[in-house]
UniProtKB/TrEMBL annotation:
It is found in: Cell membrane. It holds the Pfam family MNHE. It comes from Thauera aminoaromatica. Belongs to the CPA3 antiporters (TC 2.A.63) subunit E family. This is Cation antiporter.
Length: 170
């Protein structure tokens, strides 16, 4: 379904001779609105939910990277900065190798943090933080990424879908 969305958006942008960033974004919005209007006709409620949550996650994560970059810049450029690096071990909410790999990559992309190791038998991930006042502070940040990521990944799962009538919920 994602391929259909991409083809429709790129085709619309090419047809409008607007293969510029703003034109492509406008095409994606136009295709999204069209798919949203045809949600029940095409039976794509789960797909659109995952698309919405994925887009929200991507925007939020870019904001987190920017915020973390500013924090690292303050530490590096600040005269009175005294970072307190730490390695924190935390048990993941979903002890799955693929999820741990994805979460570890996202953590490593975030300035000031790095996933060091994951132990599948215990579900523990070891995370290095450049400036960690407390382990709880580091864990809270990782839990937020984990929560949002799981919400996105589980949006299309059958356990998340449906109400008492068996229909998908928005």
């Amino acid at each position: 379904m994602l391929g259909l969305h991409l083809l429709l958006a790129i085709g619309l942008a090419a047809y409008a001779d607007a293969l510029r960033p703003l034109g492509v974004c406008a095409a994606f919005v136009a295709v999204y609105v069209a798919l949203r209007l045809a949600i029940d006709l095409l039976g794509i409620r789960r797909y659109l939910r995952r698309l919405e949550l994925g887009s929200a996650f991507a925007l939020w994560f870019v904001g987190e990277i920017f915020r973390a970059s500013v924090g690292v810049a303050r530490i590096v450029l600040g005269r009175a900065a005294a970072p307190q690096p730490a390695v924190v071990a935390m048990r993941l909410a979903r002890p799955d190798d693929r999820f741990a790999t994805l979460l570890g990559c996202l953590l490593t992309l975030t300035p000031g943090t790095m996933a060091l190791d994951y132990r599948p038998e215990s579900g523990l991930m070891y995370i290095h933080a450049l400036d960690a006042r407390t382990a709880a502070e580091v864990e809270a940040g990782v839990r937020e990424i984990e929560r949002r990521l799981l919400r996105w990944l589980d949006a299309g799962a059958p356990a998340d879908a449906g109400d008492a009538t068996g229909r998908d919920t928005p």
